[in-house]
Amino acid sequence: MESALALLARRPHDFLDEWPREPEVHHGDPAALAALLTVEDIDRLIGDQGLPGSSVTMTRDNVMARPGSLMTDDLSAFPGAAGAVDPRRVGAHLRSGHTLLLMGLHRSWQPLTHFCRLLSAELGHPLYAHAFLTPPKSQGFAHHWDTEAVFIAQTSGHKTWELHAPVLPDPLPRHRWGRVPVPPAERARYEKGEPFLRVRLAPGDVLFVPRGWIHNGYAEDGASLHVSLGVLQFTRHWLLERLVDLAAETPEFRTALAPRLNGRGLDGELDDVTGRFARWLTDLDIERFAPTLRAEQLRAQSGPRRPAVSSAIGALDGADAVTYAAGSVLATSDGDDGGVVLHLGDHDLQVPAPAARMVTRLTSRPGEVLRAAEIAESIGPDLLRELIDEGVVHPV
Q: Could you tell me the mean pLDDT of each successive run of 10 residues in the chain, 396 residues long?
């Protein structure tokens, strides 16, 4: 599989063994990062009205632009239609020092869609891609922390970042910035104290910010464009939540607590429930529970890019050769009677035993081009068509 992580991390193999506990800077390939998104690409997205208004906003010094202030209902093709972003209003906000924020580009911009699919397949965690375009001598957001681990990939210009150790290590979504009280001494530490790291990112640089680390970024002598790749990490707490959900299928945990609860207090009930839960965990059949959990983890990631329209109109018929679409198969497992199961995220694809060897060869060698006739002879034309329809392989 192509490695997206190699573009973002100094030591990708070490990174895959364990999440870094401290920020890291990687000096990468400026051209490779620029291929993900440029200022010209943003002009195209905004100017061609290719983004819904809900995915575009602007901010300056932690103050968001007024809802609707970037929108227009004056579309030449559809007069009276609402929901389009007005490029002139975006330009005016940029000139006044606002940062442009494009959200959810992992769904709408093909280079990032492909890259995020590869990265998610490597990490095994879902993620998103947002872009931030900051004018010179401006700042969109001041000190804050995120509840996601973030790769900040600088694609154009420069941006200076100051990072401080967490107030709350490894925050969960419920611990978002602004929801957790920050003691005055802690606030003074990151607002007035010396940062753990100060770095000026140039094109090609990538800053990894672990969850909870306080960061403060600003543009100085020129405009800055970076892509934030937020990794929505599964946590031990997520596993515990799933165990509690599973326990709800056991009748004893659905039983009401005793009446006259005000007079009784909860101590006895808490002792009883924790004891029951401990015994339930001891008897839990992990092997039966794990596949359900595994399926949920895979479903949270992006599925393959499927050529539904091209396939439906026959545009892919008669392909001479095919190649594996890297990142389309998130994992594989043994199927029935010697077959193999391809886990595609939103669902699984069963491959029968006679075809398993060829399909395994095909999906383990990204970039290798194989003759369609050779594959069809080995696995059958129907399965080859299904692999194409599912986006696992594509014609070349």
A: 87 92 97 97 86 88 85 61 80 95 94 95 96 96 97 98 98 96 96 97 98 97 97 97 95 92 85 96 94 92 88 85 93 89 92 93 88 91 93 92
Which 8-state DSSP code applies to residue 96?
A: T
Of the candidates 262, 166, 273, 256, which has an alpha carbon nearest to the alpha carbon of residue 215? 166
Assigned token pair, 122: 């490597």
Please, where are the H alpha helices in 63-214?
A: 87-95, 105-108, 110-123, 184-192
The whole-angstrom separation of Cα 119 and Cα 6 is 10
- Length of the chain in terms of residues written: 396
- Quote the CA–CA distance of 376 and 380 in Å, as a whole number: 5
> For residues 1-10, b (16+ Cβ closer than 10 Å) or e, as one string?
beebbbbbbe
Q: 56-79 burial, b if ≥16 CB within 10 A, otherwise e? A: bbbbbeeeebeeeebebeeeeeee
Which tokens in the block code for residue 133? 């375009």
DSSP state string for 29-61 = -HHHHHTT--HHHHHHHHHTT-S-GGGEEEEET
Kindly give, in sequence order, each residue whose CB lies less than 8 Å from that of residue 114, ignoring residues fewer than 6 positions away.
Answer: 305, 327
- Give how far Cα 342 sits from Cα of 16, 81, 130, 308, 347, Å: 22, 43, 29, 19, 9
- The dihedral built from the CA positions of residue 189, 190, 193 and 194, taken in this order, carries a sign that is positive
Residue type, 345: G
Q: How many other C-beta atoms are found inside a 10 Å radius of the C-beta of residue 287?
A: 7
Q: Is 194 strand, coil or helix? A: coil
pTM, two decimal places: 0.91
Q: How far is CA 106 from CA 113, 127, 203, 269, 359, in A?
A: 4, 8, 20, 47, 28
Q: With residue 348 as reference, give the H or E element that holds it.
A: strand 348-351
- At residue 280's C-alpha, the angle toward residues 278 and 281, to 5°, is 65
Tokens 């020129």 belong to residue: 222
Q: Which among 119, 196, 117 has a CA at the least distance from the CA of 150?
A: 119
Dihedral (Cα; 335, 339, 343, 346), 10-degree rounding: -80
